[in-house]
Amino acid sequence: MENIALIESFSEFKDDKFIDRVTLMAILEDVFRATLKKKYGDDDNFDIIINPDKGDLEIWRNRTVVPDGEVEDPNQEISLSDARKIEPDFEVGEDVPEEVKLVDLGRRAILALRQNLISKIHEHDNTNIYKQFKDLEGELYTAEVHHIRHRAVILLDDEGNEIILPKEKQIPSDFFRKGDNVRGIIESVELKGNKPAIIMSRTSNKFLEKLFEQEIPEVFDGLITVKNVVRIPGEKAKVSVDSYDDRIDPVGACVGMKGSRIHGIVRELGNENIDVINYTANTNLYISRALSPAKITSISINDETKHAEVTLKLEEVSKAIGRGGHNIRLAGQLTGYEIDVIREGVEEEEDVELREFSDEIEGWIIDEFSRIGLDTAKQILEQDIDDLVKRTDLEEETIREVINILKEEFE
């Protein structure tokens, strides 16, 4: 096979892999040099001339003429008599350029060279994909469902890049079919071996923030700033927003007339309940807003311990806590304060650590309550039994037994 014919056959990868011809030729030279080094022990004295326009390639080996019988390195030196077979007027000390044909390398070397080229092009392709998606980390991205597995959905974008949406990165209500378009953020990109692993997430707080940027023009234009986002994916979210222009109502702009603007975001997130609140540097007011729709009677804050006690009327307590404790938990995450609720007009009894009941309640049961953030007797007694069954791995009967034990403490 002639050099030019081999180059043209290699050039087929240019169209398949979206690799420019100059880069292809650079990779080709590297591959040829590796082959020459393997065959001759060194490639320093070889010139590889590539013409990207014509796809032509020439290999020339340069050797120094030495007297007959004094050749020590056949790759670097050539005897006077052999040199004069090429050109009769060569003299000792002169350089002899000699073209190396591909047939001189041998059939097996050419096959190995081709495989090496394929590998190098794949490596180049994967590096470019890695760089491309690394720059997209934290950004919205859309891809099509290609394959549905038990623990992940495999997506393909328009260029055929594979993106993984793991089960734990999906909203609980997500249901996909092959061919569906899926939106999420590119959460992480890692090189595993030489192949990039691109992970998408729909549960990240950043996903909701980016949806606000895309769906609400004032956020996109920077007129409204999203200060913080916290979520329980598929259940509830709180978003604090601010505007430096007093003429703009940031909450009203984000929600829209009768919820028209935020409706698309809610639908995208599987009907996740989204509270949008005005950010303020006034901590008391910020916590009060974060606990909406509950109305607070009074609030006491300890900035050093990041702890807040809020007093509410009895009818407001359930609103502040929310279903499954979601509202108060998200309010705490949004503001950065641990929030305790005090019922107005009810004399507070001292709470008791759950560990103090270890003689009556087994340790693994106590650990299960602690896992969901319930460490005291009152914290458990304030919860709904059905919610506790959903949030823990405990049977309803076991939970009722625990509640009866705790109730006796306060009777």
UniProtKB/TrEMBL annotation:
SMART domains: KH (SM00322). One of its GO terms (cellular component) is cytosol. It comes from the Bacteria. Keywords: Cytoplasm, RNA-binding, Transcription, Transcription antitermination, Transcription regulation, Transcription termination. One of its GO terms (biological process) is transcription antitermination. Pfam families: KH_NusA_1st, KH_NusA_2nd, NusA_N. Residues 233-306, 307-390 form the K Homology domain. GO terms for molecular function: DNA-binding transcription factor activity; RNA binding. It is found in: Cytoplasm. Belongs to the NusA family. NCBIfam families: NusA. Monomer. Binds directly to the core enzyme of the DNA-dependent RNA polymerase and to nascent RNA. Participates in both transcription termination and antitermination. This is Transcription termination/antitermination protein NusA.
